[in-house]
């Protein structure tokens, strides 16, 4: 019988503790940290679907990480400048250095956290893909999109989990990119295309992951956006 998959939040938290808190080889320390998190924080997710993993499960998962079997593990390290600039798949291209600094400064000033390499990568990608004069894609909006892409890519690494559809995110960016040009050509009133894909949702079982999506979480609450309360 196959062992149950550890919930995304716990997987990511274990990797976070190993990569950024020096707990690479101490399952008991990781287990204590997870227990404290589950006890002290407001647990928004579906407890039935996301039980706290046992120490034996934690140890197995940590061994998997040490063996290099957890996708995107290197990208879960906190970003360091300029060490994490370069051509590697777990680095941010040097030409995006300014975007990386912008991302670091934003998360440190707003949330007092150092963003992970994976989030900085996606922030830089989003920032390089929108117009510099596009007020819609301000600093906060670019951070929200980067968080959505980072979450989607992490979900995709979990066996039997379907990657959230980010087509709507791509379409919104593409339409915003050409809007100024079309208006310049005389198309002043752009009609919204028909048959747009569904909005981006985070299921209830992953609501704890909002710890790593602070901009998306704050924006959703501020504008009354609906989260997917299904646990599927």
Description:
The protein has helices at 8-20, 27-40, 55-66, 97-111, 117-127, 139-156, 167-184, 214-222. By secondary structure, the chain is mainly alpha-helical. The protein has two domains: 1-70, no CATH class; 78-232, no CATH class. The two termini are 21 Å apart. The relative contact order is 0.12.
Strand and helix map with partners:
Layout lengths: L7 H13 L6 H14 L14 H12 L30 H15 L5 H11 L11 H18 L10 H18 L29 H9 L10
Short note summarizing the structure:
The chain has 232 residues and is mainly alpha-helical.
The pLDDT mean sits at 85
Number of discrete domains: 2
Q: Can you summarize the main beta sheet?
A: none
Number of helices: 8
Give the strand tally: 0
What string gives the helices and strands in order?
HHHHHHHH
Name the features.
232 residues, mainly alpha, 2 domains, 8 helices, 47% helix, 0% strand, globular
